[in-house]
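User: Predict structure, ligand zinc ion.
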Amino acid sequence: MPAALSKAKVDAREKELKIPNEQKAAICREKGGKVTIENAPIRSNELKRGEALVRLIYSGVCHTDLHAILGDWPIDAKMPLIGGHEGAGVVVALGEGADEFVKKGDRVGIKWIADSCLKCDFCRRGHEPNCPDAQCSGYTWDGTFQQYAVASARHLSHIPDGLDLESASPLLCAGVTVYRAVKEAKLLPGNDVVIIGSGGGLGHLAVQYASNAGARVIGIDTGSEKEKLSIQLGCEKFIDFQKEKDLVQAVKEASSDGHGPHAAIVAASSPKAYEQALDYLRPRGTLVVVGLPVTDIKANVFWTVFKSLNIVGSYVGNRQDAQEALDIAARGKVKAIYKTLGLSDLPQVYDDMHHGKIAGRIVLDLDK
Ligand code: NAD
Ligand code: ZN
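Assistant: Predicted complex:
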């Protein structure tokens, strides 16, 4: 791990390893239902082989958490559900064998992939998200909107010393996902990339990881706050999708040679964004599919062939991607922009997210 350049804020709670009898958790009891903050048991005495108990202090809120409770996707989430998959905290208890991966007191992150077998063809090749036995935090496995979470130790990420837990939490899904998506875009330094949703949770980090890779970034989102954020983080051009009348033409004109960008990373849950991207990509361009509206991508076969387009699905990242994404942030090259609220604010956060009001990420302090 590279030496940390920035000095992390230390949270006194990181040192407290005592486990209470009860905790607070945000629980959703039915699909499409509400989230309520309740007292919940802590499973410290039931840890199975390979499991660790993590005292979570912060969790980011991803748009996926909202898709999960709304039942937006073809696979159902467990119910009742404790959502969340950007959890940062400290290991406080270990099941048998878990010490192979973590020790008590380690600063760790819980990501979307809660567990995978590590033995199948996919896992062996570093495609853990595609493991047939993969479990997902905040979907098939209770997640990080709770103060004490049971985790599979082998899938915990280690948070580098130079990074405080609060700033690390948005990186655990949004950061890892877009870091991997930038790799999937196969950009060369100097290439043009469009980030769709550049002012959102994933998008604002994608802008930074892509700029670090030497790309010239064009941001698309809406409103002055997201425009300011996109430009401040490295977009050379910004297009407001609600104001621009001919978005396809505007993106082509914003590209270096007028032929359209080399890649488009869709970090928004908008079906229209996908159709437009296929139109403005240059020949041989790559569409990186990240945002998850329940929709089909309508790609015209003739133009896909004639322009020789690549359409690539990108699903979070593997354990190595996560470590790299965190290390880059610890070195000060990428910074999550977030506002911190309390766990009890989660219902309001979902409402704001639904209405597109959140620039950057919301991080929840799980003690509030
Ligand atoms: P977010 O709500 O924080 O950000 C989405 C942004 O997209 C907002 O800023 C919004 O204004 C913008 N937007 C909406 N419509 C747009 C359009 N037509 N053009 C440009 N911008 C538009 O959401 P998020 O947490 O960043 O998640 C984004 C999507 O990515 C969600 O669908 C989420 O489920 C998905 N996701 C996928 C993966 C994966 O592995 N593929 C991982 C995490 C999240
Ligand atoms: Zn997520």
